[in-house]
Write a structure and sequence with these properties.
The protein contains 17 helices and 21 strands. The protein is α/β, with parallel strands linked by helices and about 500 residues long. The radius of gyration is 30 Å and the shape is flat.
């Protein structure tokens, strides 16, 4: 694993190369980082410039930075003026060459594991995003990387910690890579303005120490033990304020830290993020300001005061009571999954997914197409979800257009029925069908149907009695269930067997 600029320069000069941008990565970029008008992108650690050139092809104005002069020289030769090629070490150099008005998209492909100060650098980059901007991290998964090359990848704990530092984070795994879509860097940390050398502070104008709610994970942890009764109140979400006194270990707890509650009656524990810490002169003052039901929802104010003073005698109360407010946000990263996603998918039954549209004529009689395959079944317009990036409704609309020549199911569409079909000969996989209401069509509209002869050779409109005569019982059961669901007379979930 290279760690210095000279090593990277020699590596590129000696012909070292990284895997090419895959079709799945291109699709994920198009889906989650579509270019906007006058969109500007920054590719950090651009290497030979393949990703930067792809972003330029999508319509972004691209700045591409790398600290290897050899890589930048070859990128410029390969891709010309597709990007503004900049020699820059994002962790050590001044960021003055970057655009001061920020970027709509910042990408780091195969870069994050090599950063010495990953959290700080990504946080600083996040504050170079324009409003609504996106930071994309593409990195190998440690679980899919040989042990001798572990340094080029991130494990589940590292990925979780990275994601929790953003207000919204999406993860997509593809071909041994994690594709992270990050938006909104957490606001309760130092906000670097001019790159890694900048620093800042934020003063709190009162004695109460608080942070705005965010989906963050703290690195500072404090351990509180609770009797089972109170632990159960926290566990159920009923208790959201804990009261202690300002002993040296409790006085250092700050908003944004993690508290780990331990149940004294068992080995259970749970963690929360501290939202607010407020000091008081006495328990009387605390209970005048705080809602007692958030401290102990099963006791009155008077009972709570007696209980607190039985736990903390006057000498302890004189230290100063503290109210720790929290909610349901976690304070620690999640545990690693018991196995890698690529391993897990091999242990579960596989399914196919189908999306189709239930179309009717102006008298609400069902319209179906006759298949040229197999048992020559009568079918709704639609098909299997086999196109990357589509959802079942998008599949239904696309397949319906290919099969009939009509644009069906436009606008807001209602899901009528979810159909689970158990596997069995000749279908080796379970099948999940999503059947949407495709609406009503006039006779003139229906006459415009143009079948794809490779899939269907006939279309027809009949009432249910006639369809019952034309269809196999299992196939008709689905049609009947869809029609009853449309009328609000039947269940929205159907299970059948081959």
């Amino acid at each position: 694993m290279f760690t210095t600029q000279d090593e990277w320069d020699r590596g590129y000069a000696d012909g070292r190369r990284y895997r090419q941008l895959s079709d799945n990565e291109r699709l994920l970029l198009a889906t989650h980082a579509p270019v906007s008008t006058d969109g500007r992108a920054l590719d950090v650690g651009c290497g030979l410039g393949e990703l930067a050139a792809h972003l330029a092809g999508l319509g972004y104005a691209v700045d591409a930075v790398d600290w290897s002069e050899s890589a930048l020289a070859e990128a410029s030769t390969r891709h010309g003026e597709a990007a503004r090629w900049l020699r820059l070490d994002v962790e050590g150099d001044d960021w003055a060459p970057l655009h001061a008005d920020g970027y709509d998209l910042i990408t780091l492909r195969f870069v994050a594991p090599f950063l010495n100060s990953r959290d700080r650098t990504l946080h600083a980059l996040g504050h170079r995003l324009r409003p609504g901007g996106t930071l994309v991290v593409i990195t190998p998964l440690a679980s899919d990387t040989p042990a001798e090359r572990r340094g080029i990848a991130l494990d589940e704990d590292e990925l979780a910690a990275l994601q929790h530092r953003w207000s919204t984070a999406e993860r997509h795994d593809t071909e041994g890579l994690a594709f992270l879509v990050l938006r909104g860097p957490r606001q309760n940390e130092t906000t670097p303005q001019d790159g890694p050398s900048a620093a800042g502070t934020q003063d709190t104008p009162s004695s109460t120490r608080s942070v705005e709610p965010t989906a963050t994970v703290s690195l500072r942890q404090h351990h509180f033990h609770l009797l089972g009764r109170y632990y159960g109140q926290v566990e159920s979400g009923r208790k959201t304020v804990e009261v202690r006194v300002a002993t040296p270990e409790k006085a250092v707890v700050e908003a944004g830290d993690a508290i780990v509650f331990h149940d004294r009656d068992s080995s259970r524990e749970l963690d929360i993020a501290v939202k607010r810490v407020t000091p008081y002169a006495s328990f009387e003052e605390l209970l005048d300001a705080e809602d007692p039901s958030r401290i102990d929802p099963d006791a009155s104010r008077e009972e709570l005061l007696v209980k607190l003073r039985s736990i903390y005698p006057p000498g302890k109360e004189a230290l100063g009571p503290l109210a720790f407010e929290f909610d349901h946000r976690p304070g620690r990263p999640g545990h690693s999954l018991p196995m890698a996603p690529s391993e897990y998918v091999q242990t579960v039954p596989h399914h196919t997914v189908y999306g189709c549209l239930y179309v009717r004529d102006e008298h609400d009689l069902p319209v179906q197409l006759r298949s040229v395959y197999g048992s020559r079944l009568w079918q709704f317009p639609g098909g299997n979800l086999d196109t990357q990036g589509e959802d079942p409704l998008q599949t239904a609309r696309r397949e319906a257009f290919e099969e009939t020549g009509l644009e069906l199911g436009l606008g807001a569409v209602r899901l009528l029925l979810t159909h689970f079909l158990h596997a069995g000969p000749p279908l080796p996989l379970n099948k999940i069908d999503f059947i949407f209401d495709g609406g009503r069509f006039t006779a003139d509209q229906l006459r415009q149907i143009r079948l794809d002869p490779a899939e269907h050779d006939m279309w027809a409109v009949h009432d249910l009695d006639r369809w019952r005569q034309l269809m196999a019982p299992r196939a008709f059961a689905r049609l009947d269930a869809v029609e009853r669901a449309r009328l609000g007379e039947g269940p929205a979930y159907l299970i059948t067997h081959i």
